[in-house]
Amino acid sequence: MKKIYDILEFLGKIDRRWIFLFVFVFTTLPLALKFKVRVTPTEEVKIAFNYIENLKEGDRVLISIDYDPASMPELQPMLYAILRHLFRKNLKVIMMGHWPLGLPLGKTALEEVAKEYNKKYGEDYVFLGFRPGGSAVMVAMGSEIRNVFAADQYGTPLDSLPVMRDVHNYDDIALLIGLEAGSTGDFWVQFANARFGQEIILGCTAVIAPNLYPYYQAGQIRGIIGGLRGAADYENLVGKLGTGSIGMWVQSAIHILIIIFIIFGNVGYFVLRRRRKRSV
Amino acid sequence: MNFILILFALTANFEVTDYPNDSGDKLNIKIFLSHPDSVISVKVFREEEKELRELEPIKIFPEQKEYLLTDKGIDRGRSYNYILEVETVDGKKIRKIISDVVPKAELFHKKRLNVLVFLIFYSFFLFFYLGKARKGEELFLRKIPGLDAIDEAVGRSTEMGRPVLYILGLGYISDIATLAGLSILGRVAKKVAQYESDIIVPCFDPIVMAAAQEITKQGYMEAGRPDLYKEKNIFFLTQDQFGYAAGVDGIMLREKPGAIFFQGYFYAESLILAETGYSIGAIQIAGTTATTQLPFFIAACDYTLIGEEMFAASAYLTRDPLMVSTIKGEDIAKMVFMGFIVLGTIFGSLPFASNLYNLIMNFLQTF
Amino acid sequence: MKREVPLIITFLSGIIIIIAFFIPLYPFGSYKNFPGLQDRFLQWYNILLGFTLILGIDTLIAYHWKKIKEGSKDAPYSIALIVSIFITLAVGIFSWVKYGDPFKAGSPFMFYYDYIFVPLQSTMFALLAFFIASAAYRAFRARNLEATLLLIAAAFVMIGRVPAGDNILNIYLFGYHITLPKIAAWILDTPNMAVQRGILIGVALGGIAMSLRIILGIEKTYLS
After folding, report:
1. CA B86 to CA B84: how far, in whole Å?
2. Chain A residue nearest residue B68, CA to CA
């Protein structure tokens, strides 16, 4: 009996390196097998999807790339799924960003997906790039986009791009989709939505998704696409599974592993507590 | 050119009004089309020194009867004439003129009245308690364990013969959390100087670094030990998030601080820093306004200052009556707002109070 | 005077921006192409930010150069850092000159970005997976009522948000269809949302009080 209690107590004192090893194995194996998992999309993602689904052909959608390579695994699959949806609906895409190191990721995705749907640069989509200023840029875009972006990333004046001809400020943009890894999404809500009434959907890393529920509940954003699960949900809705769906397999395995370790930890904790009480 | 001026009510009408809450350089043009499906194009011209200047083209939708256009960049106080030109499907061109419209500037942004009311209301409480503090009245602040533990943490670190590591996070000098972190740094630096220990402050931003150097130096001077201050211990690391995390982790593993303070604004690197700090056995005191990172600090650190407990830190540590009074005023204002939330919930739920509820809601709608 | 001048500048800047928020008339608000005071201040701030980067790089290089000169045991890392700074700068400038845009596909800088920067950043972020597992194992113990609630909520959300949790629980209770994903969604939509809003309001009000303290000169600790 003592031996059993010793084992149970040991479960509460596992060296963290064993935990790291198990996490490594449980992450690598499912990734190597590359199963794509079909998921039932969550309500917030469905609402975001339906909002885009109800936009009219030719409507302008502004995508803001506010993440960097660190958050790429969660947000890049989301971006691909969203772009496929937008181009399938023949919506016009305007891409910009507040995180300069993330913009090459956005540009790569935009060009790749545009090619899939035979979209033409300047007519169907445009890449504006980065301007410093954060909230100053957001406020300035409320009066005239050309005050901030006189030309696109390649130096072409906006007036000579058909997709930007009638677009001057948020009034001409049907939807803003912010892909967020930090607090830029809060600023989009505070400035673009609160001041100028811009409709917003936010895609974000899982860690900041809980933060956005107050805005969602208040109607300040039209949907939340949170983390890798959100990306997988969106891929399922769009009908083309990608890395988001592969990640669901991994995420399931890891979450179950963590729950098991938490159970071990609690078992060990209670046995130790019981033993201490008995010895007192 | 041959234009026919006809009775307009059959097809189109327009009005030009002053753009609200601006500096007088805009006018609003509202166009009404009774049968938009019989219209091919709509153009608006502004007459300027006998020349007609066309405003941005208007796209017509078959179901949409009203269109809003804003004419920007015009002169305040100057009189303008506007001409609406509508081309119908049967090839006719119809014109209407509105003369002598003058854009005006507003002295006060009416849509922001709710913000002004809130600001006055909030400031009232702050100044009320400031007045009380000036009269010498003692104001109570509850215990904040994280701040009480500062002395213990620095003392423990000194006993172990290890330096103190102070991390200001990824904020800039304009971030309130960084300013709060800097004010706590002053107190920690003074304590470190009194204990004749070392403090290491790797910074994410050069301006924050400059401020941190001055504050730490001041802390050492206040403790009477300016000779112990080492400027090289407060340095700029990098402005890359994970480069900063990697650098700080390296410092933790090499220098093995006895106490680690995380005070500022953090992003995803918070857990990497906190777990590494835990692995070297340091006592960790965190404080951040980043609600997304609070769970990680709470899980990994010994003490955590949540949200505005950080802002109360300088008042709490110095016990300066003026600073304490602002905390008091803030708390009372918060309680009043909580009361409004409860009232709002009640009014929103009762059917007979819906008019009052809607009135208040309309006033509170943001700008 | 050393403290008084910055305090006066802080007071005036703060008060002007607050007043400018309520007055649309130029110079407080924008007029035609002339930016208002708030926009101007923001522009000046951005310009200053750009120059501080030079200050930062100078401090960084000076700090590590000193370490190299003193021959400290970490000198090799300092050499690696300084060499990396200059190589990155050189590659970026070369790509800019030759390709017109350092981020153009096929440029040396994009190679550097794709094969060095992206993997390094992703790796650091991936460390979080290991650390969250060990932190959860250590911290999620049912020590008291609050810790137990935290543990239960975390478990529901973790399992409810992955496909593995979709079919674990599937019952009807008082006419409601209960599944783990629905429980997880309720936790996020209701208690989480309420708490987040509460903290958000608290932080915002605290921020206003702190800002007023700084503007009025009551809070001076950020000055030397």
Report:
1. 7
2. A171
